[in-house]
Fold this protein.
Amino acid sequence: MTVIEAVISGIVQGLTEFLPVSSSGHLVIFYTLTGRGGDANLAFSVLLHLATLLSVVIMFFGDVRMLAQELIAVFADIIKRRKHRKTPQRRLLLLLLAATAPAVLAGLGIKALGFDDILENIFVVAVMLAVTSVLMFCVDRFKRGRHTAKNAPAKSALAVGLVQAAAILPGLSRSGSTIFAGLLVGFRKDFAVRFAFLMSIPVILGAGLVEAAGIVNSGGPVIAPASMAAGFLAAMVCGVFAIKFIKALIKSNKFYIFGIYCLLASAFAFLLGFGVV
């Protein structure tokens, strides 16, 4: 992979990871067009996901630091057998843990059952992009929710987590589907966005570590270091801009734009799958 191809992949990953258009789906389309596949793509995809993880940490650094401190406090309370503290920070941490569990189980299940090929299937991408399109047309129709970290039910967080687990399928936007799910269960719009991005951190990190271990055991990636560095930087920078854009866009009712885009991308993926393009 050349440096230019790596930068293009990084831009695609950085923008589509957080814009509700599916990063995994776009990468499958890109690799299908360029005829590339295999372990090199897997290694590079892991690297790009870790770059976008850094984007979330940068944009939500205050929340990440608070959650890390709260997690340490939880372990301290358990060790010292102190009474569980009922604070908004502790509650947010527990909600995120509940929302993360389904995605972890789904990821382990796919690996254990050997269904990895489905993650690179262009027809799965086409169908899931169409589903994402429908969800984006629905987002603008939700009325103002009332749940935040202070009063969101645990079952609501679990429901959002189940949707995130389904978003392991390429073409189903993780950010878009979890924002949709948050609004569906009554989250306030700003909290739905914040929750969707924060819950991506453990999932992206866990998936990256698992895949990285497999890559190391297989002899390591075959992509040149310069290409990997260029792709990583492009993904991180574009990820930051994408998060800023979504945080601004959620205040307006214009998510239908992504619905139109995903519908067009779905049609293109179908044509690509059938060899028309």
In short: The chain has a mean pLDDT of 86.
